[in-house]
UniProtKB/TrEMBL annotation:
Annotated family: Belongs to the SYG1 (TC 2.A.94) family.
Protein name: Phosphate transporter PHO1 homolog 3-like
A single BP term in Gene Ontology: cellular response to phosphate starvation
Native source organism of the sequence: Momordica charantia
Keyword Transport: yes
Gene name of the encoded protein: LOC111019089
InterPro entries according to UniProt: EXS_C, PHO1_SPX, SPX_dom
Domain of life assignment: Eukaryota
Region feature (Disordered): 69-96, 229-272
Pfam families: EXS (PF03124), SPX (PF03105)
GO cellular component labels: plasma membrane; trans-Golgi network
Membrane topology field: Multi-pass membrane protein
Length: 828
């Protein structure tokens, strides 16, 4: 695989625009190469060399002492005298300046350090192409360097915040595990602290002496960080992110010092440690300035908030709170470490990309500019800063020590989860069950056609009873197939769906993983259908009609049992994630609404007919109709009443979620979205009433409300959820950023969404087909809605992903357990 594809594949999707535009720079090099080839054909090589020598004669005289001068600094300042307010990145090389292709300067503008490359051979033929190339190269590098520096500053601030959280945790742990204990810092304990402070100070001195002055300035923010210690429950300035690795660095640096310097440094550092120990406040005093963060995330806290219960933010020292705090900080450390890993990857990939593009430039132009440019890259913040690597080491040490009981293997498995590997047996199983499904479908078609089963006596009764039971599995399988297709296209167009949904790394399902249960359930359901028909036609098994009716129920119970299975088999993490999200949807608005919650609720709005099939299961088997194969549910008042309730549950859940978000976010759009779902609830109830009580008045009212709800929902799908229909977009009536290369795909999706949205017209206009049973028509209409939802899913996540890209949002915010009083003062 070429580097360009590897570079694109390893990018952080949300930071794509902050990476070096390798393809653009490569296209500029192609233009340079094309010009050189054309020029070489039109001019002999000897003439080209003569022209270069002639141009060299007309260049400004570089001086007699430059070539052999030992005062490089003087020569270099002479060369750069034309650059106002600029500094050279590296001393001039011994070679003649007239042989150099580029000169790289650092320019300070508005307090920002930028790099500017001067191309010294612009007077040659084709030099304007190379001039454009270096201007673009500088623009890309300054963009990358600025972005990286801003992100490093963010993680440094976050590290300081985590330090304070860890200080409070250690103090809290002392208070819980040893509430009446006395912590003695005398004797051996004092020597241990002194030795630790000595190691840290020596490490800091060695690091400072070995750091170039240009780089040292960029590390000033870490002077305090590198000189702190971690005592037993240190103060708010003694963070556990720094001490473990620093002690190791100190030991290595001390070995390199001579004996005399070592004694002197130890004496100074002992005095410093004694001073630090004397000035350090007692660790438990931290708890006097700390409160618990209380957020309305659980049903209990939400109910208390609505009832205006006073917030109990005071610390309660017990094991339950300690475990909860540790779990919160554990998640925060995992997310923070993941952020550091992405930053390190960002730095490495961009540095490698600049190296690759300069090698290509040197190869095409036969110059030696790459070495000079890469020296500048290596001395820049992007190439020289090691704050991220240091923080990674400290996070690893602190996490292993405080959250994994010093078990490094366990800690690193949590911090660096392994990527999920595709298994061949999954692919084989998918193919096997898919083949079985196709064979069973063909067999079912041939059997029903050859024996005219539906035309015989009892065929209509079979469609009224057994078909709704088996159609449930058809709805589930179709939705899973659409979800598998979504995953395939999300991956193809690099939509970071695992981040959007909040899946843990290594637990996200591939499209093959979704296809496996889809085809397995489909094969089992079709096998049950064929078995049921075979027992119906066999005279020996026909008397056991009641037993044959139980096959759909047995299959449903089997599917539910697998879904609820607590053992770590059959994608347990994904099943539990789905169960937890489903519970949040049912309990809306008691839980804080996140993306997976309202996304699943939207999926359920397209499975209304499946929910009605579940209701029919309860009625058919609960009332004993299966013993006589008769359907008395339609005449049952309770069943008809629950038909209204079952149909509106998904829309009601979405309405409550919108109200919850309106209350928390104060976003008017959530209120408008809630109105949309309210109108849909009214329309669904009216259509249900019309299906039970035929009448022209019901028909007109149901049609009017359904039309209004469908129009509003269609506009919301396309304009809000998909972000399309932007009048001033460069892509006509779409949006500026599109992941799919063909605009026709978006136009076709909009048309399909409109057509499938109005599939409900069948329930109002009562379309009838002689070759199709009513239950079959209802199933087709419900299937079309599921297909529409599958199309909606892709563009909904595409829009969400592009919103994350626009905001460079590649991480989830993790709530922290403690809140310092000084933070409250800042907020005020």
């Amino acid at each position: 695989m070429k580097f360009g594809k590897q570079f694109t594949a390893q990018m952080v999707p949300e930071w794509r625009e902050a990476y070096m535009d390798y393809d653009f720079l490569k296209s500029l090099l192609k233009q340079i190469d094309s010009f050189n080839r054309t020029h070489a054909r039109n001019h002999p090589s000897t003439h080209s060399g003569q022209l270069r020598r002639t141009l060299t004669l007309y260049r400004a005289f570089s001086g007699l002492t430059l070539r052999h001068s030992h005062s490089h600094g003087h020569a270099h300042s002479h060369v750069h005298s034309h650059a106002q307010n600029s500094n050279p990145t590296s001393p001039a090389s011994p070679q003649d300046v007239e042989e150099q292709a580029i000169l790289v300067n650092t320019v300070n503008r508005d307090g920002t350090r930028k790099y500017k490359t001067t191309f010294l051979m612009a007077d040659e033929e084709g030099g304007e192409y190379e001039l454009v190339y270096f201007r673009s190269l500088d623009r890309e590098f300054n963009k990358v360097d600025k972005f990286y520096k801003s992100k490093v500053e963010e993680v440094v601030k976050e590290a300081t915040l985590l330090n304070k959280q860890m200080d409070a945790l250690i103090a809290f742990r002392i208070k819980v595990e040893n509430p009446h204990g006395v912590w003695d810092f005398s004797g051996d304990r004092s020597e241990e602290i002194t030795r630790l402070a000595t190691d840290i100070a020596v490490s800091t001195a060695a690091l400072s002496s070995s750091t170039p002055s240009g780089v040292r300035a960029s590390r000033r923010v870490h002077i305090a960080m590198d000189s702190i210690e971690e005592g037993e429950g240190g103060s708010s300035h003694n963070g556990p992110l720094h001490s473990e690795s620093l002690s190791k660095d100190g030991e290595k640096n001390k070995e390199n010092n001579n004996n005399k310097g070592k004694v002197e440094e130890e004496e100074k550092d002992k005095a410093m440690a004694t001073k630090m120990k004397a000035n350090r406040p007692p660790p438990l005093e931290l708890l006097d300035h700390v409160k618990m963060n209380t957020t309305l995330e659980t049903p209990r806290s939400t109910i208390k908030g609505l009832l205006n219960f006073p917030k109990n933010s005071e610390l309660q020292f017990n094991k339950e709170n300690l475990n909860r705090i540790e779990n919160q900080l554990k998640k925060a450390f995992v997310v923070f470490y993941h952020k550091l890993r992405l930053l390190k990857s960002y730095s490495f990939l961009n540095t490698l990309a600049f190296s690759k593009i300069m090698k290509k430039y040197d190869k095409i132009t036969s110059r030696n500019a790459g070495k000079s440019y890469m020296k500048m890259v290596d001395s820049s913040y992007l190439g020289s800063s090691d704050e991220v690597s240091k923080l990674m080491e400290r996070v690893e040490a602190a996490f292993i020590k405080h959250f994994c009981n010093a078990n490094r293997t366990k800690g690193m498995n949590i911090l660096r989860p392994k990527a999920k590997k595709e298994r061949h047996r999954t692919t084989f199983s998918v193919g096997f069950f898919a083949g079985c499904t196709i064979a069973l479908v063909v067999a079912l078609i041939f059997i029903t056609r050859a024996r005219h089963i539906l035309d015989k006596e009892g065929g209509t009764q079979y469609m009224e009873t057994m078909f709704p039971l088996y159609s449930l599995f058809g709805f589930v399988v179709l939705h899973l197939l659409m979800y598998a297709a979504n995953i395939y296209f999300w991956r193809r167009y690099q939509v970071n769906y695992s981040f959007i949904f909040g899946f843990k790394q290594g637990t996200e399902l591939s499209y093959r993983d979704v296809l496996l249960p889809s085809f397995a359930v489909a094969a089992l359901a079709l096998a049950c259908v064929l078995s049921n028909l075979d027992m119906e036609m066999d005279p020996e098994t026909k008397p056991y009609q009641a037993v044959t009716e139980l096959l759909p129920l047995v299959l449903l119970l089997l599917v539910i049992a697998v879904f609820l299975c607590p053992f770590n088999i059959l994608y347990r993490s994904s099943r539990f994630f789905c169960m937890r999200t489903l519970y949040h949807c049912i309990c809306a608005p008691l839980f804080m609404v996140i993306f997976p919650d309202f996304f699943l609720a939207d999926q359920l709005t397209s499975q209304v007919q499946a929910l009605r099939s579940l209701e029919f299961y309860i009625c058919y088997y609960g009332w004993g109709d299966y013993k006589h194969r008769r359907n008395t549910c339609r005449t049952n008042t309770v069943f008809n009443t629950f038909s209204f309730i079952i149909a509106v549950i998904p829309y009601w859940s979405r309405l409550l979620q919108c109200l919850r978000r309106l209350y928390e976010e104060k976003d008017a759009m959530q209120g408008y979205n809630g109105v949309k779902y309210f109108l849909t609830i009214v329309a669904v109830c009216l259509r249900t009433a019309y299906s039970l009580n035929k009448g022209i008045s019901w028909k007109i009212v149901a049609a009017v409300f359904s039309a209004v709800a469908a129009i509003i929902s269609t506009y919301w799908d396309i304009a809000i959820d998909w972000g399309l229909l932007q009048r001033h977009s460069k892509n006509r009536w779409l949006r500026d950023k599109l992941l799919v290369g063909h605009n026709s795909v978006y136009y076709a999706a909009m048309v399909l969404n409109v057509l499938l949205r109005f599939a409900w017209l069948q329930t109002v206009l009562d379309f009838q087909f002689s070759f199709l049973h009513t239950q079959g028509l209802i199933t087709i209409v419900a299937s079309l809605e599921i297909i529409r939802r599958g199309i909606w899913n892709f563009f909904r996540l595409e829009n969400e992903h592009l919103n994350n890209v626009g905001k460079y949002r590649a991480f989830k915010s993790v709530p922290l357990p403690f809140n310092y009083d000084e933070d409250d003062d800042k907020d005020d």
